[in-house]
Amino acid sequence: MNKSALKYGFFLGCVIPNRYPMIERSIRDVFEELNIELIDLAGASCCPAPGVFRSFHILTWLVIAARNLSLSEELKVSPVTGCNGCYGTLRDVWYDLEHDPQLKMKVNEELRKIGKSYTGKYEPKHVVQVLYQDLGLDYLKDYIKYKFSDLKVAVHYGCHIIKPSIKRPWNKEYESPTFLDELVELTGAKSIDYKDKYLCCGAGGALRSGFNEVAADFTKEKLINIRKAKADIIITCCPFCQLQFDLGQKEVSNIFRDEIKKPFTIPVIYITQLIGLSMGIDPNRLGLIKNHNIKDVSPFISLDPFLKLIKKQLI
C-alpha cells in the first residue's frame, strides 16, 4: 500500500473539540507530517457515548452510530477517531451490524427516513491503530528527529481501545497489550511498568457524571501507583481519560487530601503530542505551551515540568 495515499474521515467526537482542542491539533499535525489526509466528516454528531446511550436504548445508539459511519462511507474512507469511547461505539456497532444481517436491515430502515444508508464496507479505526498497524513502527521511525534520553512514561490504555477483545483488532494483545508502549518508546522515552496498569481511569460508564467521588477513587489508585513508579508523565490515547487524569488529579488531591498528603501534579500528555514533539513539530502548535491565563480550562495540571525536563534531554 502507498502510505502517502492514505485517507481517513476524521471523527472528532465531543470531548476533543469541547475540552481538548490541542489533541485535535496534534493529531492533524502529526498526520499531515506523515502525509496522511484527514477529511472532516461534515454533520457528524456524538458517537453516541457507549456508557450512556447504549444503557438506555440500544436501537437509538445503533442508528446514530450507523449514521456517523455512513458519513465516512459516502467519502469512501474509513473513519478514524482519537477517542476511545467514540472508537468503542463506532467499532462495536460496525462489528455488531456486520454479524447480524437482520439488525443491519432494521438500522437501515431507520436511516432511510433521513436519506442515509449504512454498508459496513469501511472499518472504523483509532488514531493509535492507524499509527501502529496501518503505518507501522518501521515507517514511523523515519520521521523521528529527536529522542528523549531519560523520560519515564506511565502509559494508560483505557478500556474501550482494547475491550471487548473479540471486537478489537489487536489479536491476542488484549490482556497485556504493548502497542501504545511501543509507540511511546519510538521517541526514546521509557514506558515503565506500574501496578494495575490496565485499570480503568475511573471516568467511564457515566461514573464521573453520576458518582464523581467513586470515579476519583479509581483515579486515586492509579495515580498512587504511577507516582510510586516515579513516572515523569502520563500518556493517554483518549480525551476522556485525559480529562480524568488532568482535571481528576485536582479533584483527587482535594477529595483525598488527608490520605495522599502531597497533591498530584503529574503532567498528562496525549500520544500524538509526544510523537509530534519527537518529530520536531512546534510545541506551541501541539498545545503543550499554555499561552493564556484563562482559568478552569485544560490543561489543568501544568506541563511546565515536562517541558523543562525535555529541554535537557532532546538528543
Tell me what you see in this structure.
There is one protein chain. With about 325 residues, this protein is an alpha/beta fold. The protein has two domains: about 120 residues, Glutathione S-transferase Yfyf (Class Pi), Chain A, domain 2; about 180 residues, 3-Layer(aba) Sandwich (Rossmann fold), CATH 3.40.50.11810. About 45% of the residues lie in helices and about 10% in strands. It has 15 helices and eight strands. It has a four-stranded parallel sheet, sandwiched between helices. It is globular, with a radius of gyration of 19 Å.
Write the layout of secondary structure elements.
Blueprint (H helix, E strand, L loop, with lengths): L6 E5 L3 H5 L1 H13 L3 E4 L12 H4 L1 H17 L3 E4 L2 H15 L2 H11 L13 E2 H9 L1 H5 L10 E4 L23 H7 L4 E2 L15 H4 L1 H17 L4 E4 L2 H17 L1 H4 L7 E3 H8 L25 H10 L2
Parallel strand pairs: 1-2, 1-3, 3-4, 5-6, 5-7, 7-8
Helix pairs in contact: 2-14, 4-5, 4-6, 11-12
Quickly list its features.
single chain; 315 residues; alpha/beta; Glutathione S-transferase Yfyf (Class Pi), Chain A, domain 2; Rossmann fold; 2 domains; 4-stranded parallel sheet; 15 helices; 8 strands; 9% strand
CATH architecture grouping of the largest domain:
3-Layer(aba) Sandwich
The top level CATH class name of the largest domain = Alpha Beta
Give the CA-CA distance, first to last residue: 32 Å
Helix content: 40-55%
Task: Say how many strands there are.
Answer: 8
